[in-house]
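Translate structure to sequence.
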């Protein structure tokens, strides 16, 4: 097969057209043959722009750009292996979900929920390996001292690694904490009633400054929950008069309370 042009110089339209030619050629070759591998590798190089585009969309999330591109390339190879030109679908449309899925799976399965230094990431792997080996040897979970001796490190290093390992994976707040509730049920939330308590505490001395009749009408209206008509009947005044007194009193309290905030 003749040499192909340098892929860096091939634009998107030419890459799409050249991919069609190569897929048709790939379909006619015996899988595993040197020519088959050459054509498939050419397709990979020709479509690496899809991988770079996917990485830009997803981001590297603290990982090496080259590592994420390599993971995306695995997805590209899988897409090439499964692609059927006879279905009438453009290869970029077919390949992108596979490439994106491979990258997202990599982040889900191998990256940390909380980013920690590379040294601690490697220490976690050493601790996991040592723990598995010592469990097999002793038939029980090893102590921190045993792990430290196995790895030839001090106890503080083991403690630091175990603490850092807590950042490897996160749990959903909807995960059950017990038989009747989830973790989210145990998280404190702002109490809307706190502001009301503060207001009532601030109002107490302001109400004490009111004339006795105004205090009495407030108590009948908001403590005894009497209607304005019932208050008027008890005090021998009209309902309209009661309304004016309440409006004036509330406006006075509101104005003083505002100045205190």
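Result:
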């Amino acid at each position: 097969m003749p040499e192909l042009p340098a892929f860096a110089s091939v634009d998107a339209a030419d890459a799409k057209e050249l991919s069609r030619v190569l897929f048709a050629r790939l379909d006619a070759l015996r899988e595993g043959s040197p020519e088959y591998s050459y054509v498939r590798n050419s397709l990979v190089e020709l479509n690496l722009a899809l991988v770079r585009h996917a990485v830009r969309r997803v981001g590297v999330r603290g990982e090496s750009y080259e590592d994420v591109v390599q993971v995306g390339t695995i997805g590209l190879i899988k897409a090439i292996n499964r692609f059927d030109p006879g279905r009438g679908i453009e290869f970029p449309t077919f390949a992108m979900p596979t490439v994106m899925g491979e990258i997202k799976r990599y982040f889900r399965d191998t990256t940390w929920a909380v980013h920690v230094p590379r040294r601690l990431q490697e220490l976690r792997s050493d601790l996991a390996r040592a723990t598995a080996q010592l469990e097999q040897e002793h038939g029980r979970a090893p102590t921190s001292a045993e792990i430290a001796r196995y790895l030839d490190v001090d106890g503080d290093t083991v403690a630091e690694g175990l603490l850092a390992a807590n950042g490897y994976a996160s749990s959903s707040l909807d995960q059950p904490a017990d038989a009747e509730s989830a973790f989210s049920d145990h998280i404190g939330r702002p109490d809307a009633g706190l502001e009301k308590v503060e207001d009532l505490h601030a109002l107490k001395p302001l109400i004490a400054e009111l004339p006795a009749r105004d205090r009495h009408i407030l108590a009948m209206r908001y403590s005894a929950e009497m209607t304005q008509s019932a208050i008027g009947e008890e005090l021998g005044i009209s309902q309209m008069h009661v309304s004016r007194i309440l409006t004036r009193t509330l406006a006075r309290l509101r104005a003083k309370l505002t100045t205190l905030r």
